[in-house]
Amino acid sequence: MTGLSFRDLALIDVERIKGVGDKRRVALRDVGIETVLDLVTTYPRRWIDRTNEARVGDLVVGEEALVLVTVREVASRSLKNRRKMVTATVGDGTGRLQIVFFNQAWRERQLREGLNIVLFGRPENYRGGLQMTNPVVDLVGDRTGRIVPIYPQSEKAQLNTWELAGWIENALDRCRERGILDPVPEDIRSGLGLMARDEAFRSIHLPETMKDKEAARRRLAFDELLRVQLVLVMRKRAMERDAIGIRHRLVGGLVEQFHANLPYSLTGAQQRAIDEIAGDLAAPHAMHRLLQGDVGAGKTVVAVSALLVAVQGGHQGALMAPTEVLAEQHHSGIRRLLDGIEVGDPSNLFGNRPLRVELLTNRVTGAERREVLAGLADGSVDLAIGTHALIQEGVRFRHLGVVVVDEQHRFGVEQRAMLRAKGEADNPDGTVPDVLVMTATPIPRTAAMTVYGDLDVSVLDEKPAGRTEIVTHWANGPLDEMAVWVDIREEVTAGRQAYVVCPLIDESEKLEVASAEQTFERLRLQELVGLRIGLLHGRLGSAEKETVMEQFRRREIDVLVATTVIEVGVDVPNATVMAILDADRFGIAQLHQLRGRVGRGAHRSRCWLVTAPQEDGNPRVEALVASTDGFELAEADLELRGEGTIMNTSQKGRSDLKLASLRRDKELVALARQAAFEIVDADPTLRSQPALVDELSLLFTSEDEAFLFKG
Ligand code: ADP
Ligand code: MG
């Protein structure tokens, strides 16, 4: 008899578990637990090691401790600023202590008299007695045992940890006879010293020791990571296998000419990335590479170098940007960069013609559009810069050789695939263009391995010389804010320019635009009266947008009030100050991205993060003030937001990481990736691993599955 697979467990409804009646079943469904698989993969949030438990009488002031106590009395009162303070007296047989919560009004409902709770905190002396302020509280019920698992509880669904623990124990007991199947090949398991899956499930829920619990967590976290890596590695290998790549020739001199024309020399990191890309381009398989580089790291030059390799071999190149503003900027910027560069032309007696770069977005219309489309189809356009308009119906290339996708986070995996497919469909010899994806969102390396696990990665980890550091300040409240406007006036007087970024309003572009218009009016009439102010937002027509941008570039506007449409790509070196209003509404990555619009020239730059007054600090704003290093900020971001958000960009639902942490389990990520390569390279279609395949098809969406079973 084989063990129970995840699919077997997913077929058993939770109502089969002892003690789960109709009512509890509804509550469980509310928190996403419908099957026994969902139940046993609901892992404890933490484990309390009762062997370390103290008695109240033994508590020492200033030393963190864990105590099991009973609630005696609860009270609450209101403080100024509409804050609430909840206090409770608790105790065990050896003494009493006071616990105090600020700003946690719900504690009054949670802490009922007679309830047994475990407290973790640092006792202080208060008016002659012991007190803990904002301790960690766990409701343990009457569970005994040396190590007590604490499950995520839901007040709304009225689910508590001891109920969950009971059901999970019951489920595991009933799995005991057949055991839980282990789909991971034995040699990989033993090579990594991983606990068997069946044992791991028992040890994570009912550990004998903390060490067992750790080993179980490692095993189950590994499984989560392995599944993700298997999908990614299979996708990578399938792409390499299925596609006929182009062997680009690295001779022709176009790239060298381009580099020689640059007013600066390449950074070491740029040169390295260009070499890595050249290696891919020359190889017979198609390139799928991610170029990661912080804002201002100089990705454009690397991208253009790759595109020129295509052109010098007689192919075309395309660069796709996420917005029209960005596409237009790239178009004019790249045209400038390539000014004077010529390409060989067999139809011309003199052998050369100027390199032709054209723009294709939805606002290129009429005769102009027809001309660009004709040029793409007959090959006379060498480089096409555009938005997703490039992959629309009716756009045909003669021979697309290299595709660059800028700012990946705005596109999805599907769009990347579409661009590639476009080349494949158009190219007369069925070859697939090489793809370079660029992102300015700094992602910690291990996370990149997961999110972009089907790509190779190059990193620009060195900024071009002569960059000025951006000094960031937090304008905390209206008094500080006044300094911001003074600063902007001074900079403008000194000949510089400024950005004012308006509050992000997630729910509605309409509201966001309205607020930008208000800010614009207010600044024009009050704080910045007399300065030349422009307004840029997403609801302006494309022509209007371009006019405003052009005026700003030509210094006809001193201060540009804008929504986040300026988030990416906008490059005006003379702009030296940025004020971001309601900065606490933005995420860390977005603030960093926005801030990168200044500090692009020779002048000292400043960024002001403006918020309503906040007494308690603001970790995101403070992180930005403390660091301008994108990778450091990415780590901080991961820390503050938790994991889920990262995975959401590539996987969702059941394939989420529940135990594994991209931050804490760096080593495990690398091991899982390596294991995935071993498994896939030994058997590319996983024919000999039916249990693994079954599990993947159960846990991944159909779209992920399509990749799995295509080969
Ligand atoms: P990214 O797209 O990575 O944010 P860009 O490619 O827009 O950065 O480059 C930012 C600025 O740096 C541009 O003004 C560009 O001309 C300049 N730049 C790029 N590479 C170098 C270099 N090696 N030395 C000096 N300046 C550079
Ligand atoms: Mg860029």
TrEMBL record:
<dbReference type="GO" id="GO:0006310">
    <property type="term" value="P:DNA recombination"/>
</dbReference>
<protein>
    <recommendedName>
        <fullName>ATP-dependent DNA helicase RecG</fullName>
        <ecNumber>5.6.2.4</ecNumber>
    </recommendedName>
</protein>
<feature type="domain" description="Helicase C-terminal">
    <location>
        <begin position="478"/>
        <end position="644"/>
    </location>
</feature>
<dbReference type="InterPro" id="IPR004609">
    <property type="entry name" value="ATP-dep_DNA_helicase_RecG"/>
</dbReference>
<comment type="similarity">
    <text>Belongs to the helicase family. RecG subfamily.</text>
</comment>
<keyword id="KW-0347">Helicase</keyword>
<dbReference type="InterPro" id="IPR027417">
    <property type="entry name" value="P-loop_NTPase"/>
</dbReference>
<keyword id="KW-0238">DNA-binding</keyword>
<keyword id="KW-0547">Nucleotide-binding</keyword>
<keyword id="KW-0227">DNA damage</keyword>
<dbReference type="InterPro" id="IPR033454">
    <property type="entry name" value="RecG_wedge"/>
</dbReference>
<dbReference type="InterPro" id="IPR001650">
    <property type="entry name" value="Helicase_C-like"/>
</dbReference>
<feature type="domain" description="Helicase ATP-binding">
    <location>
        <begin position="280"/>
        <end position="460"/>
    </location>
</feature>
<dbReference type="Pfam" id="PF00271">
    <property type="entry name" value="Helicase_C"/>
</dbReference>
<dbReference type="InterPro" id="IPR045562">
    <property type="entry name" value="RecG_dom3_C"/>
</dbReference>
<dbReference type="GO" id="GO:0043138">
    <property type="term" value="F:3'-5' DNA helicase activity"/>
</dbReference>
<keyword id="KW-0067">ATP-binding</keyword>
<dbReference type="GO" id="GO:0005524">
    <property type="term" value="F:ATP binding"/>
</dbReference>
<dbReference type="InterPro" id="IPR011545">
    <property type="entry name" value="DEAD/DEAH_box_helicase_dom"/>
</dbReference>
<dbReference type="GO" id="GO:0003677">
    <property type="term" value="F:DNA binding"/>
</dbReference>
<keyword id="KW-0378">Hydrolase</keyword>
<keyword id="KW-0234">DNA repair</keyword>
<keyword id="KW-0233">DNA recombination</keyword>
<dbReference type="InterPro" id="IPR014001">
    <property type="entry name" value="Helicase_ATP-bd"/>
</dbReference>
<dbReference type="GO" id="GO:0006281">
    <property type="term" value="P:DNA repair"/>
</dbReference>
<dbReference type="InterPro" id="IPR047112">
    <property type="entry name" value="RecG/Mfd"/>
</dbReference>
<dbReference type="GO" id="GO:0016787">
    <property type="term" value="F:hydrolase activity"/>
</dbReference>
<dbReference type="Pfam" id="PF19833">
    <property type="entry name" value="RecG_dom3_C"/>
</dbReference>
<keyword id="KW-0413">Isomerase</keyword>
<dbReference type="Pfam" id="PF00270">
    <property type="entry name" value="DEAD"/>
</dbReference>
<dbReference type="Pfam" id="PF17191">
    <property type="entry name" value="RecG_wedge"/>
</dbReference>
<dbReference type="InterPro" id="IPR012340">
    <property type="entry name" value="NA-bd_OB-fold"/>
</dbReference>
